[in-house]
Each structure stands twice: as structure tokens, then as C-alpha cells.
Design a protein that fits this description.
By secondary structure, the chain is an alpha/beta fold. The chain has 2 domains: about 30-55 and about 65-70, no CATH class; about 80-210, Rossmann fold (3-Layer(aba) Sandwich), CATH 3.40.50. Helices cover about 25% and strands about 15% of the residues. It is built from 5 helices and 6 strands. Strands 1-6-5-4-2-3 form a 6-stranded mixed β-sheet, with helices on both faces. Helix 2 links the parallel strand 2 and strand 3 (about 125). The radius of gyration is 19 Å and the shape is globular. About 35% of the residues are buried. Bound molecules: iron/sulfur cluster (2 copies). One iron/sulfur cluster binds near residues 140, 169 and 194. One iron/sulfur cluster (SF4) binds near residues 101, 139, 167 and 169.
Length: about 210
């Protein structure tokens, strides 16, 4: 009886999964540089350089710099480096590793797999084993207790061992300042604190060359 009710509810509501990337949500525009009068010193993580350029990978989105600057998470904030999409097969399996996060990056990453975003339809999957992973996705700052875990996960992965740094902590050390990864080895940086599900999905698609 209960299963029938769920079935009828589903028919009534229709498909609720968002279209991607055709219809991203509307967000206030990102201002690419600081307007005159901004106090750079107010930024706690030096995410605004002397010329007023915003460094997305450092920004913790505290918005202390408003109204001169207004960063937003729903933008293309990713950067692909030293990587060819030819190295990736059709489906893309991610092994997530929390090296010392606050938990918010983990929540946003999980939400890309919920029915609203449904990343599986875009051939993005999560795996519980580094042995089955195309990519190691690291969140959080470097912590002593996780250093071995990170190294072992990397050793266990098959080639091409794609490394993704997600969030300001993994990219630049965030407010703590200790990075868990060697920047040179990172193929994809997904900026944000935390990055939104749209930012995460579009970054992975960019990495794959979709
Ligand atoms: S929002 Fe980003 S750029 Fe602005 S003060 Fe905070 S960390 Fe710095
Ligand atoms: S980047 Fe921000 S949201 Fe992600 S773990 Fe660090 S503090 Fe938390």
C-alpha cells in the first residue's frame, strides 16, 4: 500500500532533478576586481592581491570585503592543470578523502548525488575504495593524523591518479594555512568554501573535457 502511495506521489510531482548545465541558478554577478576604496587588509587569507585581483582558490567567502567585493559560489571557479581528458574513460569514479575539513565540503560533495543534482546521470560516481578510483578528491587542511591515509590512498589508486583539491582548505590551506597536497600534482582545483554542487559538477565536466 505504502509503495503505491510513493508511486502516485512521484507521478504527481514529475521529474524534480535540475537540468544541468542548461539552467544554472541565477546568482549575483561576480565582480572580478576590487572597487576603489576597498581595504585589502580586511581579507583574512590574502585572497585579494595588491592589484585588487581576486584569488578564488584562497577565498573563504567570509564576505568581509563587501560591498567592494562580492564573491559568489555559483560560478566557474575551477582550474584544470597539466591534465589531458583522454586519460579518462567514460565513467568517472571519485574517492573522497577528508584530510581535515569542517564538514561543509563533504556535505556539498554528497549533495551532487542527491535527486536534485543527480550526478550519476552525468557519469560521475563515488567509490569507497581508492583501488576503483579515477580521482582522489581531497577536502580540508593538512592534518598529521591523515598524512599516512592520504599517501596510502594515492599508492592504492590505479593510473592516471587524478588528484582533485576541493575547497579553499585543500587548495591553499584556508584559514589554517596548511595544505594537504603538493600543488604541482593537483589536476583540478575547485574553489569555494564550500563550492556549490553546480561548481563541483561543472568542474568535473571541465576536467573530462565535456
Ligand atoms: S570574501 Fe574572500 S576575498 Fe573577501 S575578505 Fe573574505 S576571504 Fe577575502
Ligand atoms: S574549504 Fe571551507 S567549507 Fe571546505 S572544509 Fe575548508 S572551511 Fe570547510
Amino acid at each position: 500500500m505504502t509503495s503505491n502511495l510513493w508511486f502516485l506521489k512521484g507521478i504527481k510531482k514529475g521529474v524534480l532533478t535540475e537540468k544541468f548545465p542548461a539552467e544554472p541558478p541565477e546568482e549575483p554577478p561576480l565582480r572580478p576586481s576590487v572597487m576603489e576604496g576597498a581595504e585589502y587588509s580586511e581579507c583574512p587569507v590574502e585572497a585579494i592581491d595588491a592589484e585588487g585581483k581576486w584569488i578564488a582558490g584562497r577565498c573563504i567567502f567570509c564576505r568581509r570585503c563587501e560591498p567592494h567585493f562580492m564573491p559568489t559560489g555559483n560560478q566557474d571557479l575551477s582550474e584544470v592543470r597539466n591534465f589531458s581528458p583522454d586519460a579518462i574513460r567514460k565513467s568517472f569514479y571519485i574517492y573522497p578523502l577528508d584530510s581535515g575539513s569542517c564538514g561543509a565540503c563533504n556535505m556539498e560533495l554528497l549533495s551532487i548525488f542527491n535527486p536534485q543534482y543527480d550526478a550519476n546521470r552525468l557519469r560521475i560516481f563515488m567509490t569507497n575504495s581508492p583501488r576503483h578510483a579515477d580521482a582522489l578528491l581531497v577536502m580540508g587542511v593538512r592534518t598529521e593524523g591523515m598524512e599516512n591515509v592520504l599517501r596510502e590512498a594515492l599508492d592504492a589508486m590505479p593510473g592516471p591518479k587524478v588528484i582533485i583539491a576541493m575547497g579553499a582548505c585543500a587548495i591553499s590551506g584556508g584559514i589554517i594555512g596548511t595544505m594537504p597536497l603538493d600543488k604541482e600534482k593537483v589536476a583540478l582545483e575547485i574553489a569555494g568554501c564550500p563550492p556549490s554542487p553546480y561548481t563541483i559538477i561543472s568542474a568535473i565536466m571541465k576536467l573530462r573535457g565535456d
